[in-house]
Amino acid sequence: MKRLIRCAMKRETCDLVIKNARIFNVFTGKLERGDVAVAEGRVVAIGRGYRGKTVYDAAGKTVLPGFIDAHIHVESSMLSPEAFASLSVPCGTSAIVADPHELVNVCGIAGAEYVKEAFSRLRVGGVNPLDVYLQLPSCVPATPFETSGAVLTGKETARELRRDLFFGLGEMMNFPAVLAAEDDVLEKLEAAADLNKPVDGHAPGVGGKEFCAYRCAGVLTDHESLTAKECREKVARGMYVQIRCGSSVNNIADAPKAIDAYNFRRFILCSDDKNAHDLNTRGHLDDALRRLVKAGLKAKYAVAMTTINVADCYGLRDVGAVAPRYFADMVVVDDMEHFNVSAVFKRGVLVAENGKPLFAHGERYLPDAVRSTVRVKKVTKEDFKVVGHGGKFRAMEVQPYGLYTGETFVPAPEGELDCRGTDLNKLAVVERHFATGNIGMGLVKGYGFHGGALAVSVAHDSHNLVVLGDEDAAMARAVALLEEAGGGIALVSAEGEDVFPLDIAGLMSSASPEEVVRRTGEIAAKARKMGVKDCYEPFMTLVFLSLAVIPKLKVLDRGLFDLDKFSFVPLEEKA
């Protein structure tokens, strides 16, 4: 403290001075011209005439606080934690609130321990370039209707939350159980409340008395608001609303309509799911800021939503602002319209410059606990046969650019269903944790794919194998390819087979970011040539079709599930 004061008073030379800057003040919403003085990893002053051991000339560019992602599943990037950091930090990301929901559903608590340890090993100039606030997944499994690799009860959750490993409780997706006041779910929520740890939410379309009840359970945030009206209602009831800009889903177009000069402090920015290709080509939170401003939101509101608002929401001390005493986590951008990042500082250390990380990300930390996790009972083409009896088949219709799946009905003539030459695909979820042989079957209308099969070992939330196709033999072969690879993404067509392994829990790859981007991009491009429509991300959309906490119709390893009815339904209805 003495040195901070002495540096602020210009009695000592600072560690770093960023000169000739335009500094955005999140407290006033205004830009100031001057220098940023840093000592001991903290900002000590905004002014002029400071001496620094290191001087960085901002050349008139804008200095912002480091960006904080309010909710993200790192696993959805398909990158190792080290590789994720190497792509996100150069985009200005200084911290993430990470929910390792996917890894824990596959590997149990060991999955969370892996994420934290892998990130903690990153170093540049004696500092870690990325702060990770780890949430303990609240829904393992997400529902009692599917098979996951692990189960966390209320008692186990209460025990684990007491560890310093976990910052808070991850998104409470099982909102029906919350509204029903089920004891096991409430035990998890009460444990977080007793420890004064934040609880993230997940309540699509929940309003009225049901939303009031959800808030009474202590849930702090929600990233599933689809309309401006829903955003306003949730903010009015004391919720922080997370504006989501992910690879598959975003509400950038509608959410800004809900934000005004009074309530903007209750909105925060998150990615939820961001794939490697988008991180590499579009960016991370810098991309979200560009898109928000282009959608008409004032830049000062947008910046607050990914800095000081997130810090206030989660009670993060001394982050989220460029101001005295705050940690010197800063991003230098060209302006507050394009948000092109030229430099990133963490605790006053330059950690990325001109789109490149300044820290090593070569050797991966890969414990045995996250390897060899795909165990499948052998399947044949007969396992994917669908037979009609003269009634009508239920079929899923996937919302463009979204996660919701509508329900439609198509004729179910007598005999075996042949999807070739139609706008239907078969969708199967194959259990992959204990080789039980469970296979849930459904139909998808309008995806556009034809001539083979797509398969992936990433499938929210229990991460069984999801395979879509119009040829049964190709579907069986795609599953076999994933088992041989230990998980990954696979494509089978008349032209050949393509597979990219995901050797970390069947969710992520230990390959370099460049390799992940290149190979996943190649396979996705081939899927597009086989007809997948532009409004769907070939594999990222696929992984949500078994997500039983998003309406309406989803396929689980135990069958076809209707969230509105909260029960399984038959594939065929009688005429």
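Next protein, fold it too.
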Amino acid sequence: MSFAFYGRVSTEDQQDPQASKDWQLSRARSLIEPVGGRIVEEFFDIGLSRALPWKRRPQALRLLDAIKSPWRRFDAVVIGEPQRAFYGSQFGMTFPVFVHYGVGLWVPEVGGAIDPGSDAHDLVMALYGGMSKGERNRIKIRVRSAMKAQTELEGRFLGGRPPYGYRLADAGPHPNPAKAAEGKRLHRLEPDPVTAPVVHRIFTEYVSGRGMTSIARGLTRDGIACPSAYDRERNPHRNTEVWETSAIRAILINPRYTGRQVWNKQRTDEVLLDVEDVSLGHENKHRWNDLSNWVWSAKIAHTPLISTVLFEQAQQNVRVYGTNGEAGKAARRSTRAYLFRGLLRCGLCGRLMVGSFNHGRVYYRCKASRDYVRQHRVDHPPCLYLRQESLTGPIDQFLHEELGERILSETLGRLAAAQHRSITLLENDDVEEARWRQTIADCDGKLKRYRAALDAGGDPALIAGWIKEITAIRAATQAMLGAKPGRRQRLTEDQIAKIVEGLGGLLALLHNADPLDRTEIYARVGLQMTYRPGTETVIAEVISPAIDGVLDVCPRGDLNPHALAGTSTSS
């Protein structure tokens, strides 16, 4: 039998990847060689957590693609260490793919091939998946407990860049004999003679009543280098000319200036990528912990730059990130209907304009501080406003003309008759297909809810409009999925008709659509706008990811002639 080998090593800095691969290969060969097996392909992931599902590990994904190929060179897959390959319930979500394509899976723990019909084998693999998850959790608990004790009892500096105002100093050899033998040493914080007085000045001025922006401007005016300018080696990507209000705030809420070591201000949460598809796994999100969960050193760990009294006085006026109650305020979601959220940019600075509600009307605003104008050398007024209602009519008319049946049919027809020159230019076809399928799934979910609302006695006319709208989106997306470039086929006349019908019906419903659905429509058709206040115009164009996925690199002049939607600003 011919085998493919799969292995994984996560901590590249703590383990030798080649040595890890060698012993896993050796264990795999000792299992298959007695029966005449040989390894013809190797798949080995380096530096990736076992918690990542197979589809998000490059080599594991390559293996899955090879399993699906009718021209694969192997009959089965052998794994030297299942705890490194499968985490939690990953085996149950991966092994059915092996079974479907007739590829065996061999592991030493069952003495050979896993029998799909054996409950005992399923239990063994589930056990090892649970052990793998438990091992990872135990490591996390041990590390966190050790860091808490080192902070609380020893006041040890646990790494990272020193806060502005401090610099690192040697604190002797590492207490771990093995690490000490490698020459590793501990570090501590000591005041930086250049920046420490600046920190004291910031706290003193803030407590005396000056605002953060005023303090930042004063430091810039006095020629004091901001943190990124002072430490250019570690901040090559940041602006270096002026102090930002955010930098002042970060200094004011940092308790380490009182001389105590503080740990656990932030945490890393594992959040599901898609709650409807758990197999996609998690992504890491950094979040601020509540102040009550911060761990403080029991004694002074380094030279304080300010007194505890001064720090506490400053905190009375500062909202701490991520806290609730009197110390801060949680983020809230807006209930306003900002139809063009994330779609409108300022033509002067290139930044996205943000929604603003004033005097009962919706505006889009671009603010530029004096420091921003000076730093980026742009001619920008302090604040630009553009009223939403001045955009909706011209934009809907533009979309009707740009994606109307006649123009869209002609464009798609020309491309349907063209050769396949553009098919191979799409590099991420699987991601595109997954997005289309997700859109269809979202539409199905909405249709189900709308029909349930209709059965519950909702307004038939209103709900019928919603259903028609979502059905149009689904039809257009389904047609695009059927014309997926990776399948090496041209657009058929039927597919063209479905896309035109879907988009045509979609645009006809814009005027009466629910605001939230209307916002989604604008985003999905790829609307992008740039406001130019000098000529009081908005340049609108359609750069639809979905349509581009079918049409690829059609010249923008043919598909998306630039349109100017005339608008006027309101003061």
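About the second fold: Confidence is low (pLDDT under 50) at residues 320-331, 418-428, 485-491, 545-571.
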